[in-house]
Amino acid sequence: DTGVSQDPRHKITKRGQNVTFRCDPISEHNRLYWYRQTLGQGPEFLTYFQNEAQLEKSRLLSDRFSAERPKGSFSTLEIQRTEQGDSAMYLCASSFDWGEGGKLFFGSGTQLSVL
Amino acid sequence: LAKTTQPISMDSYEGQEVNITCSHNNIATNDYITWYQQFPSQGPRFIIQGYKTKVTNEVASLFIPADRKSSTLSLPRVSLSDTAVYYCLVGDSHMEYGNKLVFGAGTILRVKS
Q: Are residues A56 and B100, on separate chains, in Cβ contact within 8 Å?
C-alpha cells in the first residue's frame, strides 16, 4: 500500500494524558498537512509542512499541540495534557508542491477519544 | 481565502445524475476549484479539480462558468456507494508556501434504491 498511513487508527485516553500520532505520507510528496475533524463538520486545517519546515500553523493549534517532521519524511502530532474538547478525528494528508498541488491524499485518520 | 456555499444535503435514486452546485463569489484569479468525497471513518478522497470551463474524468465532471463564481459537480448514474459527503474547496494550488485548503461543512448526498 503506497497511500498515506496513520497510526494508531483509534486512541482512547484519559484527560490530562499526552498522546502522539504518526503519519507516513506518500514517499514522493514533500508537503504534509494535519487536519482535525469533528462529527458533522468538515476537516479543519491545523498545520502544514514543506519538507521538514513547518510553514504554517492554525490559530486552532494551542500550545498543547506540537507537530514535527524530521528529515522531511514521517510526521508526528503530539497533544499534551489532553482535554475532552480534543476528541476528534485527526487527519494527515500529503501532496506534491508543484503541478497538482491542490490534490491532497488523505490517510484514514486517528480517532481520538478523551475520557 | 474564498468561502464556499453548498447545499447541506441532497437525496437521489440509483441511476440518476446528481448535480451539486457550489458558490464561491470571492474566488481569486489564481484559485482552483477542487472537490473531495468522504465516507464515514475515512479521510476525504480527491474527485476532480478545475480552473475554468469543463473538466471530466472517470468518475465525475466539473462545470465552471466563465465568471467562475460557482461550479457544479456532476455525478453520472449514481449508485448506493456514492452516498457520502462532498466538499467543494477553492484555493491557490500553486502558492509558494502551500495551499491551505479550507473545507466547509460539505453536502451530504444520500442515494436511495
A: yes
Q: Would you call A91 an interface residue with chain B, using a CB distance cutoff of 8 Å?
A: yes
- The answer to whether A102 contacts B43, with C-beta atoms less than 8 Å apart, is no
Q: What are phi and psi of B82, to 5 degrees?
A: -85, -5
Tell me the residue type at B17: E
User: What part of B 16-55 touches A (C-beta under 8 Å)?
Assistant: 32, 34, 36, 41-46, 49
Q: Which residue has the cell 468525497?
A: B37
Q: What is the pLDDT of residues B58-83, one digit of tens each?
A: 999 999 999 999 999 999 999 999 99
Question: Looking at beta carbons, which residues of chain B come within 8 Å of A105?
Answer: 46
Cα–Cα distances in Å, from A64 out to A36, A43, A54, A76? 15, 19, 16, 14
Per-residue pLDDT of A25-68, as tens digits, reads: 999 888 899 999 999 899 998 998 989 999 888 887 889 999 99
Torsion angle of the four alpha carbons A34, A6, A102, A71, in this order, in degrees rounded to the nearest 10 = 80
Q: In terms of Cα–Cα distance, which of A64, A58, A75 is closest to A18?
A: A64
Three cell numbers, residue B80:
448506493
